[in-house]
Amino acid sequence: MKIVLLGPPGAGKGTLAKGLKDHFNLMHISTGDMLREEMKNGTDLGKEAKKHIESGGLVPDEIVTKMVENKLSNDKNVKNGFMLDGFPRTRTQAEDLDKILKKINLPLDCVLSLEASLKIVLERLTGRRVCRACGALYHIKNMPSKKEGVCDKCGGELYQRADDNEKTIKNRMEVYTESTEPIIDYYKKQGLIKTLDANKEAEEVRDFTIKLFNG
Ligand code: AP5
Asked: Which of 88, 129, 134, 202 could share a disulfide with 138, CB 3.0–4.6 Å?
């Protein structure tokens, strides 16, 4: 299966991808995670990305598209199926993705559009915690770790993302509405969109999606 996960910040794209990854043996390709890894390693790409991410804006198309193209063209596991999380985010990225997938002969099967209310995404983002070591996702109310600040899975330290503050979240939402939401129509025209009610509990969203794919 080759899937794109679309949805506003905090809709639960990363959470759903982690829930589907093992069930369907799919590769999870998150451009947000890839960019944060570059930032952590202090690379030139990471330094450039930091300027945009911390203000809630988008990293330039050519940088992100190149990163995704490298992954899709060079990782041999891609042919077993993948979920793109956070890419594409602009019409240009969507068109470039079509070209890349045509070149490697792996057309998309489906674009999942996660719909969630503004109230819910704000609550989710301001309460999110992430494991510094393994990337596991938590929420201080909805999905708390057993011990505060410590990852249940690996014992790593939990932290709050620098872009999960109210001012930056507001910018991210505006950027989503302006630049990303319009590509839902782009994929509707290709007959690829399936819509999910992402306001529901994480397990319910995951089980619904599994049923959707199992027919
Ligand atoms: P990115 O990391 O992709 O952030 P995002 O799209 O804003 O999405 P989030 O990761 O914030 O949310 P999510 O939908 O994955 O929710 P999650 O599952 O974590 O991008 C960050 C930045 O990088 C961008 O702003 C941009 O600058 C740059 N960037 C990335 N890709 C780019 C691109 N293609 N082009 C240009 N720039 C790019 O869940 C959130 C919280 O809610 C968690 O705490 C979780 O536990 C909880 N939760 C999730 N689902 C549920 C549920 N169903 N019920 C209850 N709680 C839930």
From this structure: 129
